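Lecture notes, continued. The same structure-token format from the folding unit now serves as the input rather than the output. Read the line below as a description of shape only.
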């Protein structure tokens, strides 16, 4: 295991990503599916296999997100999320990652509290739904009150690199009450700068590249199945991870 003075979390969208991240010495893996959609709940099979691969080496926390497109959910969608979270925790996941907002872009107190209670002594992280809240200071106070362990944020920017001053303010406002983790737009060569300016001790990144599936008939078929986006997907780039100290 690589010894760092910060915690490196790698977002993994497949079992091959998990293998890459574990071999690179990631401290923690955020396990999901559909990286292109911002990360959705991983399957039972993916989670079980990931836990077997990472056992004794790397922590696994599961993102619980039943669909893309915002963070306000119907009762049925929330029930799916709750059942998924319960299943992943029972499988042995080290924690769950989630984010619930109400129609006013405030923290959904009831749903968040229920997830914290469900997690028990496992880790809890409120994901980048946090970047959509109206008042981040109030949101930090609420998440502290609810007992959430960690917040993933881009400092309410498309890339955290564009919001380092705000990230520093968030870190200072949290004042050790809750962990602030920097994510979105993180490149290996920028990690030291992010930490130096903001003071955060948790870094999150996908460190991904696009790969293309070989198909001899690709381009010859005149149908939807031959579209380029059906033959490409994101993977964690082992070369990028190798550049991280």
């Amino acid at each position: 295991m690589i010894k760092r003075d910060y915690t490196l979390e790698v977002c993994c969208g497949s079992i091959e990503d998990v293998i890459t991240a574990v071999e690179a010495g990631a401290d923690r893996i955020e396990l999901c599916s559909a990286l292109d959609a911002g990360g959705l709940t991983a399957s039972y099979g993916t989670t079980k296999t990931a836990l077997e691969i990472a056992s004794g080496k790397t922590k696994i926390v599961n993102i619980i997100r039943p669909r893309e497109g915002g963070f306000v959910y119907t009762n049925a969608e929330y029930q799916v999320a709750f059942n998924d979270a319960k299943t992943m925790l029972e499988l042995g996941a080290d924690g769950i990652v989630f984010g619930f907002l109400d129609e006013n872009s405030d923290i959904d107190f009831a749903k968040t509290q229920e997830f914290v209670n469900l997690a028990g002594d496992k880790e809890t992280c409120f994901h980048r739904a946090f970047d959509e809240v109206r008042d981040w200071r109030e949101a930090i106070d609420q998440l502290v009150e609810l007992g959430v362990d960690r917040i993933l944020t881009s400092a309410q920017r498309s890339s955290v690199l564009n919001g380092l001053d705000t990230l520093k303010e968030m870190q200072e406002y949290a004042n050790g009450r809750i962990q602030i983790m920097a994510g979105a737009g993180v490149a290996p060569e920028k990690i030291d700068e992010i930490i130096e300016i903001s003071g955060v001790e948790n870094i999150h990144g996908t460190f991904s590249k696009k790969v293309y599936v070989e198909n001899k008939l690709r381009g010859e078929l005149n149908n939807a199945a031959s579209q380029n986006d059906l033959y490409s997907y994101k993977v964690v780039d082992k070369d990028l991870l190798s550049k991280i100290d």
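Point for the exam: The CA atoms of residues 106 and 151 lie 15 Å apart.
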